[in-house]
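# step 3/5: fold
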Amino acid sequence: MYAVVPSDLATIYNMNPLFNSGYSGKGETVAAIENTNVYSGSDWNTFRSTFGLTSYTSGSFVTVHPAPKKGPDNCTNPGVIAPNDAEAILDAEWASASAPDATIEMASCADTTTIFGGMIAIQNLINASGTPPGIISISYGECEPESGAAANAAYNAAYQQAVAEGVSVFVATGDSGAAACNYNDPWATNGIAVNAFASTPYNVAVGGTDFSDTYAGTNSTYWASTNSSTYKSAISYVPEIPWNDSCASQLIAEYYGYSTTYGTNGFCNSWVVYLYYAVYDELLTTAAGGGGPSRCATGAPSISGVVSGSCKGYAKPSWQSDVIGILKDGVRDLPDVALFAANGFWSHYYVFCWSDVAHGGSPCTGPPSGWSGAGGTSFASPDNGWHPGPSKPKEWCAAR
């Protein structure tokens, strides 16, 4: 297994020349949008010290509960909400990995019965009297049909205002491939759908990839046999493939000797898949980097959770028109960019420090290979999350 750490990421994506030239986030604020506080702020410090980030002395971490510019305070301190606190700390840690001199500002508000706390935080940040953060990163989401036209319009308007104020908004596309309404299901039944939090024309939608070296049998070409003092083992850029843990992955099917993924004799109906599902809870899954066409940003579905009825997607923005590789389908397509986000099927996953042992975390002691390990576009978004919205439980894609 190859546990990816900050210095691996910097090597693979050639960040070191930027860091060495002074482009390390100094003077910038990255706001991670949450509906929980972190379990322990010391986890962020442990992550930084273990992986050699403390040499960037301007880096800092602060939690805020942004109040509105006027009127009653609608941002209640959410406290620590498990297991979403894992989401919060990984966002803070990996944002710091890619911008080690930046201020990482965790903007958290409690959910209400009708509004995601993160939405309250976003609106209060962009409407504040002072300067808004330069970057907003969001790792939560809900599929367009379930989010609904009113909530979709609210996100669209908030991001549009943020961009007008000079704020860059990065949103994780999700971890259910093109089946955002079937998060964590063994198979997709609700058709093609995308994350409503990521599908507006005003945000950068961040998808997920995996590395191809295990599939190609070239691990030793890209990874050293020993770690550096900061636990780096990556040698260079590692070629990427789509992150797709499902039996619909053509690469996984070919790896196990199947030419097709579908049909009676296809990989998805094989004994290999059912064995993996029984033992590892894998392959019969929708776990994959989120993406696809916007199809229900407006209108209303006639079938709950399914693109139907009067649903329509966002019109294709001008910057996606006449671009090689982007479909001429008339609607906004996701993702815009993608970064490593896999959770271990091909032997690669992210490490983070989350010491909330009672809710699935691990003590951040000893080699990082024994710390918490996971994957998902939540890692990719702050590095540049789809994860459930406020009403849904969080599942971690831990490396097997």
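# step 4/5: annotate
Residues 149-164 form the longest helix (16 residues).
# step 5/5: archive (pending)
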